[in-house]
Amino acid sequence: MTRILACADFHLGMKFAGYPSVQQQLSEARFSTLKRLVGTANQKRCDLFLVAGDLFDRVSVSARDVKRAAELLNAFQGRLVAVLPGNHDFYSGSPSTLWARFREAAGDRILLLEHPKIYDLNHYDLKIRLYAGPCDSKHSQENAVSWMKDLAEQGKNGTAESGTLRIGVAHGSIEGISPDAQGVYFPMRREELEGAPVNFWVVGHTHRQHPFENTEIAGAANGNPPVLIPGTPEPDGFDCRHGGTAWTGIVSDEGRLRFESLGTGTYRFVIDQQNVERVEDLRRLETRLKDTKSSVTLMRLKLSGRLESEQLAELRQVLARIEKNLLYLRLDDGALVERISEQNVEAEFTEGSFPYRLLKDLIAEEDFEALQTAYSLLQEQKL
Asked: What is the pTM of this model?
């Protein structure tokens, strides 16, 4: 029986410049998550800790971050840590400061999958072969797994050598799964992956896990090899709606594969939309947001609606309390406007005047959109 923890896309060293008030917390969380995952792998007695690209956020990451990452991975108690260069931390084929520093700090049970080839792990007492597709640049219209095409027919026949497990590990977009409209992130087609001589794939780059549920499957000998995407283990922005994921897997001696999804992250990025028309809406909004894990929640709150001036003042008080409880709040209230009431019209315009009669008629007709437009235009003429 072989136990595996598969992960990807840590992006250690990410700066989070767009979140200056919580920049340090978000950057630090990525290292904390790696430490927890190594601890989880040790607890589950995993044999292989596999990183399918983008361990680091860029090739120019600081020496301190490289050393720290290697030290965290050195704490893995299993047989081997295998790290594939992704498109953010690519291996260009020439001496690289990033990977040279990483090798210097890494222990003898950390293997860098720097070349597109088969890595036989017998030396680490693992009956596993890794079919590696590392990235050699930030962008490419060519994927890193096409070299396996010539092996496909050979790999389709029979089982692996003496029961050796064959794992494809790559980094890049997958047609139909990953967003890559321009086709510049080492794009892979499903038929390429399915035709490879491996038992299953672990593919990094896409930050959302795939498939979306735990799965028990047979190896490639009984069909096309399944494709597992770990997803990013720590959310990195408002386009990341999940709480961080990875895969843990068990391969039986009979070749049966069982994978379980791991929840891994610390922080959550949440987008919330709320139409506010009454004071009761404000109170429900505050109550609902109190139910979130506020201390680890970053929220983008989009507000729309119409409120009277007194209600707008109350809204600001509610928002101040919400912001105090959340880790971070980004407010978009461009669609929230002051409700134009008869009192507003009577206070600002002469009775019987054209603006007075126009606005009064629109209020009576409850044509609030036209009312808001007319009121705004009349305000501009006053200036």
From this structure: 0.87
